[in-house]
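REQUEST ID: PR-0412
SUBMITTED BY: lab tech R.K.
PRIORITY: routine
TASK: structure prediction, single protein chain
INPUT:
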Amino acid sequence: MQGTKEQRVSWQWRGASVDLGLSIHGDGPTVVMLPALSSISTRLEMAPLQQRLASGFRTVAIDWPGFGDLPRPAVDWAPQAYADYLAFVLGTLMPKPRAVVAAGHAAGYALAHGCDHPDAFERLVLLAPTWRGPLPTMMKGRRPWFDRLCRMFDMPVLGSLLYRLNVNRLAVRYMAAGHVYVDPAWLDRARLEQKLAVTRAGGARYALRRADPAGLAGRDRGARGNPGHVQPDAAARQAVVLRGISRRNSRGDLAVPGRGGVMRARGAV
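STATUS: complete
OUTPUT:
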């Protein structure tokens, strides 16, 4: 995208160094953009929105550890890692932005961070938020063996095989049509090749199946145990929830309070 500055930042977690890409575009108050935590998603999906906001805002789209288009280390990624990373982004890297835009599973982490740190940002926009991982969605709930299955992705031979079964061409097309894009036709041949290239980045398999924000340990997530249920006094800033493009199960879980300046918006972005 013309006028975009591409940079890298290094983040340390439990002795591992992770390089992450970020794209900066426009001038004005800072808006931090967090893509979905997905094996086929990167910060580059935010480029069209960055272009539209460029005249009034400095937008910074940044990848998540374990995801994105750069090689990544073999780390036992866990929900707490993503919570710590977001604290680094919003506390050290880009403190007190005008707004945070979070897509998909990133919404749960952004919402939880905002509740714990009311002054971290002024506005929060949740794009198609979801609190469910793919396995809980397919199995209609969490199962004790989920963690064991995630560990299998770390095994040298079996892990690579399982990962390839999850991100081959057919699987990616099926996932995109059923769980990712509002218009499956958007994923044409050229875009599909770009998505498949993302899945081939070194170390990509280690984060798969581990980013479910409902797994944040030791936190009160409300009656249904997910970060979509927040007490009214915790919503300290205005949040725009674009939930009309969320999956049906995720829309059912959304219980963001309508008080305290929080709005709900339906329809496509």
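NOTES: The longest strand covers residues 16-25.
REVIEWED BY: pending
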